[in-house]
């Protein structure tokens, strides 16, 4: 029986993960015609169609997607061998998708990703910025940064540590409106809310703030929009300290009040946690975030 050509599998994997022959050829250091022949050779060897052409992109067929899942496992196994042999994250390659809130994605992750690149230069990071949770069961992300322990079966959580949040306003807003005298006076200010006003008001009441849903003067479903409104002097909103400290013209309006605790968890699917590329990024992220919230 004729054995499979490993170069063809490698070419298929690169084409499937990049989506085009040109990008895959550049990644592998091959000419596009050479790579095209490898992919065609694999299809002929298997007697299967692995791609459909949609415009300039190649889209996996159902059979191609199934084959990719198996080759991903082979690639992870090869990465494990390299990681053991070299003992360094620099030996690991591939793309890792990290899901985080809009604000964490915009203000925290860029600097962390730059440091990750220095430590694992062959790994590509894709940031999925959303204030709704990515579905790890459907592989919408490889790693999620969350502020609550994962409860769903099949998910593995690592508690990085606890950060804190407080209410902030710009110095310009305070200049024109003054500082609220007590937390009870918060409802009478230009309060900016994030997400669902009813749920947010209920959560704040459990923390001792007498706030009703109607007290929010401005609302947004984006934490970045909320924070930008605060920075631009539109009102008061809560934010975690590691983001607030980056804005020099924003101050804590209740500095004597105990801060609001907010845990940070790194969450992965248990079937993906053993992947070397995900393991490397997970561990580097954990160290970076722990140092950030401790500072």
Give a nutshell description of this structure.
With 295 residues, the chain is α/β, with parallel strands linked by helices.
Count of helical segments? 10
CATH architecture level-2 label of the domain at 163-262 = 3-Layer(aba) Sandwich
> Rough shape?
elongated
> What is the CATH class name of the domain at 163-262?
Alpha Beta
* Straight-line distance between termini: 61 Å
Assigned CATH superfamily of the domain at 163-262: Periplasmic binding protein-like II
- The share of residues in extended strands comes to 15-25%
Could you give the topology of this structure?
Blueprint: H1 6-18, H2 21-28, H3 32-46, E1 51-54, E2 57-60, H4 62-86, E3 94-100, H5 102-119, E4 123-129, E5 143-146, E6 155-170, H6 171-177, E7 191-194, H7 197-206, E8 216-220, H8 223-231, E9 237-240, H9 241-244, E10 250-252, E11 260-269, H10 276-294
Parallel strand pairs: 3-4, 3-5, 7-8
Antiparallel strand pairs: 1-2, 5-11, 6-9, 6-10, 6-11
What keyword list fits this structure?
single chain; 295 residues; alpha/beta; Arc Repressor Mutant, subunit A; D-Maltodextrin-Binding Protein, domain 2; seven-stranded mixed β-sheet
Notes on the protein architecture:
- The structure is a single chain.
- The protein has 295 residues and is of the alpha/beta class.
- Among the domains are: 6-85, Arc Repressor Mutant, subunit A (Orthogonal Bundle), CATH 1.10.10.10; 163-262, Periplasmic binding protein-like II (D-Maltodextrin-Binding Protein, domain 2, 3-Layer(aba) Sandwich).
- Helix content is 43%, strand content 23%.
- Strands 3, 4, 5, 6, 9, 10 and 11 form a 7-stranded mixed beta sheet that branches.
- Helix 1 packs across helix 3 (32-46), helix 1 (6-18) packs across helix 4 and helix 2 (21-28) packs across helix 3.
- It is elongated, with a radius of gyration of 24 Å.
- One of its GO terms (biological process) is DNA-templated transcription.
- Pfam families: HTH_1, LysR_substrate.
- GO terms for molecular function: DNA-binding transcription factor activity; sequence-specific DNA binding.
């Amino acid at each position: 029986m004729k054995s499979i050509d490993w170069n063809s599998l490698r070419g298929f994997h690169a084409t499937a993960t990049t989506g085009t022959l040109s990008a895959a050829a550049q990644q592998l250091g091959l000419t596009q015609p050479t790579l095209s022949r490898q992919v065609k050779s694999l299809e002929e060897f298997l007697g299967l169609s692995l791609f459909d052409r949609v415009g300039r992109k190649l889209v996996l067929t159902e059979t191609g997607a199934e084959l990719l899942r198996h080759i991903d496992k082979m690639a992870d196994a090869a990465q494990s061998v390299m990681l053991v042999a070299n003992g360094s994250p620099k030996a690991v390659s591939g793309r890792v998708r990290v899901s985080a809130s809009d604000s964490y994605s915009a203000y925290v992750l860029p600097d962390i990703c730059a440091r990750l690149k220095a430590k694992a230069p062959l790994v590509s990071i894709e940031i999925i910025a959303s204030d709704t949770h990515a579905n790890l069961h459907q592989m919408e992300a490889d790693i999620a940064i969350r502020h609550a322990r994962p409860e769903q079966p099949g998910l593995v959580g690592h508690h990085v540590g606890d950060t804190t949040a407080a209410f902030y306003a710009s110095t310009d807003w305070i200049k024109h409106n003054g500082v609220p005298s007590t937390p009870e006076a918060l409802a009478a200010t230009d309060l900016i809310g994030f997400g669902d006003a009813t749920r947010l008001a209920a959560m704040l009441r459990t923390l001792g703030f007498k706030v009703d849903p109607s007290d929010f003067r401005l609302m947004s479903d984006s934490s970045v929009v909320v924070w930008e409104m605060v920075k631009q002097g539109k009102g008061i909103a809560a934010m975690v300290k590691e983001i607030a400290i980056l804005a020099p013209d924003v101050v804590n309006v209740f500095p004597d009040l105990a801060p609001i605790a907010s845990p940070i968890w790194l969450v992965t699917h248990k079937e993906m946690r053993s992947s070397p590329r995900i393991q490397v990024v997970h561990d580097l992220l954990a160290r970076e975030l722990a140092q950030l919230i401790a500072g």
